[in-house]
Amino acid sequence: MNDSGNDSPWDTKKVRTFYELPFIELIFKSHSIHRQYFNANEIELCTLLSIKTGSCPEDCGYCPQSAHFKTSLQKEKLLAIDQVIEKAKTAKAYGATRFCMGAAWKYPPKKEWDKVLQMIKEIKALGLETCVTLGQLSEIQTKELKQAGLDFYNHNLDTSRQYYKKIITTRTFEERLDTLELVRAADIQICSGGIIGMGESREDRIELLIELASLPTPPKSVPINRLMPVKGTPLGDTPCIDDFEFIRTIAVARIMLPHSFIRLSAGRDEMSFAMQAFCFMAGANSIFSGSDKLLTTPNPSKESDMQLLKELGLTIKKLKKHDQSSYV
Ligand code: SAM
Ligand code: DTB
Ligand code: SF4
After folding, report:
1. Which long-range contacts (CB under 8 A, 24 or more apart) does 108-114 make?
2. Of 159, 198, 265, which is best to mutate to test ligand 2, by the most ligand atoms within 8 angstroms of its C-beta?
3. What is the pLDDT along the chain (328 residues), one digit of tens a residue?
């Protein structure tokens, strides 16, 4: 049993000591671990598409897609399969290895289910990895997603158990964990991370990382989003988190999740090349790229990302032929 009262190898005190290291020492440590498990000059490219936008019944305080808040969002029903496949083909031609689709649902509605499964099948057939984020799932749904060829399911814990209640009232942290467990049991790889800069404390960031690292199987993919404050949402006026604290969080995530791809996700559009380079140095090795939009907010253009990779001498990670669904 550790100081936090559970069986995780991580406890708050231990993780806090990483955060409190002198900055250069922390980066040296996380970068050294990064090099043990990954090619430090290689970056994974995932292309993201919002397949159903807005009118979401949940009240996540950061999200422009919640029906609870008045934002300038352009709502859209579930896209047509052909439209999605065209985007996936473009992503593949660009060099992305994974195609990720997001839908603003509490859980996937019955009437759209077959269409979503068909999208996954067709994208998988293109030779891309597939990832979807559709909200809460049932056991049968996870099995059907697996059968359709789904590689990853994105379902973020987003913040600490404590802080979660202050950000979202329409679902619980436990329900998030339940869906992650169903995903794991169906042998779909987990993509789960969080948002940094929602006004949470360092303690909350530590607790989030402990939750992620203590899952029965740590997520293979860990998106770290920097809050994009959107006007009209409760977090619309939140000041930007300090750059060094954000980089420290990436570094600590890399130390605690040595085998995971850490994705520098939302927030890159507001970051300089130097800031992104620091995040890669600290251990981030994946980005959303290939579209100048994330789901609804801006993302750097393809041209800008190619320039970034060129300036840093980074190469794009390719899929291994023998195993397109996992990296061991
Ligand atoms: N509705 C599904 C769900 O919440 O699981 C999937 C889509 S949801 C938009 C996916 C993730 O986007 C959230 O868990 C959150 O981490 C991230 N996100 C949403 N709005 C954001 C914002 N304004 N800034 C940063 N990340 C955000
Ligand atoms: C994740 O962790 N970040 C992506 C993806 N998973 C689905 C979404 C970021 C959304 C940022 C706000 C927006 O564009 O609406
Ligand atoms: Fe809905 Fe997901 Fe946005 Fe929450 S984060 S309001 S569940 S789309």
Report:
1. 108/134, 108/135, 108/137, 108/141, 112/52, 112/78, 113/141, 113/144
2. 265
3. 555 555 678 999 999 999 999 999 999 999 999 999 999 999 999 999 999 999 899 999 999 999 999 888 889 899 999 999 999 999 999 999 999 999 999 999 999 999 999 999 999 999 999 999 999 999 999 999 999 999 999 999 999 999 999 999 999 999 999 999 999 999 999 999 999 999 999 999 999 999 999 999 999 999 999 999 999 999 999 999 999 999 999 999 999 999 999 999 999 999 999 999 999 999 999 999 999 999 999 999 999 999 999 999 999 999 886 545 443 3
CATH, residue 104:
3.20.20.70
The count of structural domains within the chain is: 1
d(CA 177, CA 163): 15
Residue 109 CA to ligand 2 centre (angstroms): 21
For residue 322, being part of any structural domain is answered with: no
**Residue 324 resides in a domain:** no
Count of H helices and E strands in the chain?
11, 10
Taking a C-beta distance cutoff of 8 angstroms, is the pair 234, 198 a contact? no
Question: Which residues, in sequence order, are bridge partners of residue 103?
Answer: 52
Say if 142 falls within a structural domain.
Answer: yes
Buried b / exposed e along 10-30 (16+ C-beta atoms within 10 A): bbeeebeebbebeeeebbebb
Q: d(Cα 135, Cα 104) in Å, to the nearest integer?
A: 8
pTM score: 0.94
320 located within any domain: no
List active site positions: 56, 60, 63, 100, 131, 191, 263
Ligand that comes closest to the CA of residue 100: 2
Q: Which domain holds residue 211?
A: 12-311
